[in-house]
Amino acid sequence: MSVFNPDEVFGSFKDFHILVVGDVMIDAYISGKVSRISPEAPVPVISLSKKESRLGGAANVALNIQALGATPVLCSVTGDDEHRKVFEKLLKKRKLISDGLIYSPVRKTTVKTRVISQNHHLLRIDEEIQEPLNKSLTDALLNRINVLVHEYNINAVIFEDYDKGVITPELIKEVVKLTNDKGIPTLVDPKKRNFMYYEGVTFFKPNFKEFIEGVKTDLSKSDRDELVRLADNFRIKQEITMMMITLSENGIFIVGNNGHEFIPAEKRDIFDVSGAGDTVISAGALCLAAGLPEKIIARVANMAGGLVCEVPGVVPVDKEHLLEECKAKNVFEI
Fold first, then answer.
1. What is the pLDDT of residues 181-201, one digit of tens each?
2. Is position 123 within any domain?
3. Is 278 considered catalytic here?
4. 41 part of a folded domain
5. pLDDT digits over 250-268, tens only?
6. Would 68 be classed as within a structural domain?
7. What is the total count of domains within the chain?
8. Which of 324, 290, 288 is nearest to 304 (CA)?
9. 255 is a domain residue
10. Catalytic residue among 99, 163, 278, 318
């Protein structure tokens, strides 16, 4: 049996710089009370009590990296608009590095506005451009990534893809070539559009729905043998080192060169699953940078994702709480 020291592993996170490349956004919330229906149309009237803006998308991954003690370096393209100013203020408030951000008048800063009353989500309004970046912006982003990889001595790169256009096939190909040449691990939280373009990455983390849609198959979560076969075939074909599929209430599945493992979900009082995927990829990135074996990476990531589901809203994981849970459950023993 191999045993890794959890305190030493978590203590090493402070030395890591993680480049987060992808779609950033603002998560905006409008909260109030509904007490009547509008006389103009059969819709509820909300009496506004609170407005709030938070960092979302790839920026929430950066917050999770930061919460775990490492230094995130965010790299993305937003609009050159009023929402950009809000986004910059949020970054400054959380003391996040903004060197990797490019502002363009031909893009729009993505904002997802949720209207909430008495803990009920009534409506969401999306302001965004989903078209892929043009060549000049892709080239500019690649140049910025090249600079940041050298300047910050990057330990891992996360592709955080929300299908909003920042990540393109060309960007993936060039960044993977750069990182593989330098021995820097790459992790992917994929979406549908670019699913098949992440060839040669280190760590690929779709959820179950994204995986079966990506490989165009109909599969039950309970059919473990077929899941192992399909996932391993996909991993080998795409030249991916390890692949982890989140299975919501069924936990996490990981497969790599050293076999596979199904890790059951921890029994918890689930309050809100929002942002759990961001926490999973963040914990996975730091464990990968720390040189942990794939099964421990999956176990820590599974534990981290479960912890944030106990808290309402999109929140970063608590590092000390995660460390305590890992120790209590002997997560570092294989």
1. 999 999 999 999 999 999 999
2. no
3. yes
4. no
5. 888 999 998 999 998 776 5
6. yes
7. 1
8. 324
9. yes
10. 278
